[in-house]
Amino acid sequence: MLEKKTQIIEEAIALFAEKGYYQTTIQEIAEHCGMSKGSVYSYFESKEDLLLSIFQYYYELFTGRLTRIAEDTSLDSRERIIRQIEAMFEVFESHRDFILMQMKEKPFKNLSEIYEFVSKMRAETFHWYTNAVIDLFGDSILSYAYDCSTILHGMVNEYMGHIILDKTEIDSRRIAVYLVECMEDIAAGLVKRRPQPILNEELVQPMMEHADLAKPTIEQVKQSIDHLKMHLAEAEFDNQMVEEWNSILLVVEEELNQPVPRKVILKGMLGMLKTSTIPHAQEFIAPLERLIEHHLHD
């Protein structure tokens, strides 16, 4: 991003946090940047456009940190989620004004484009928490993934409030480890007692409609199948189970190689795969499920 544009965004965040969005004028932002009002308008069409750019700027910083950690293949699932939560708190703290801006005033519903982007942020963040929980605990937590996502997100937000509003000093690494340990206890309790989940796919669907989630291609699904085959070969599973899985995966691959893959066949194979007790199998199956849902026709 251009240096001047970044400067305007950061000055605007500080003023919005201090005075509120509606009480701050473009003229004031320009004066704080040491430039003319016209110069600000050369980068942003309106104050609403500037506010949208602020959310986009922050969201790119936030997701960029999480993505870089996710791509570190040296980390196991537990260390990965710890470092990602740690990164969240570091981003929160280093961009305190952005959080205060949201707490100061929430004009989102009056500004449709802003409201839509904030809804997208919320949905995609929830999706990230859900995947992180499944990655950490495996198939045993699938029934409670949405509930665990909500609980973890809530804990992060409340501690963030202590840090931002009360200026409580808490080491980011310490709190990240602590929250993951809390989630391990919660997950163990849910799996042991097996209560009826509060949230399910139907209930979270209205929120998730705002998310702009990548839809997998057939080639990406094939790559996921290859990874699953490697997982089956490397881990110590029952030979008969591995043979059954490989047979199902062969049918899936053959169907995906057809000019027009048949949705009914793939859904049948998917149903068989989802009954598996193989640890972490769901992360390999998920792309196939999304492909069937978004790309294929009956």
Automatic annotation (TrEMBL):
- Reading the lineage from the top rank, the first entry is Bacteria
The UniProt keyword set, sorted, is: DNA-binding
For this protein, the DNA-binding region equals 25-44
What parts of the sequence cross the membrane? none
Quote the protein name from its UniProt record. TetR/AcrR family transcriptional regulator
InterPro entries reported for this sequence: Homeodomain-like_sf, HTH-type_Tx_Regulator, HTH_TetR
Q: Where is the HTH tetR-type domain?
A: 2-62
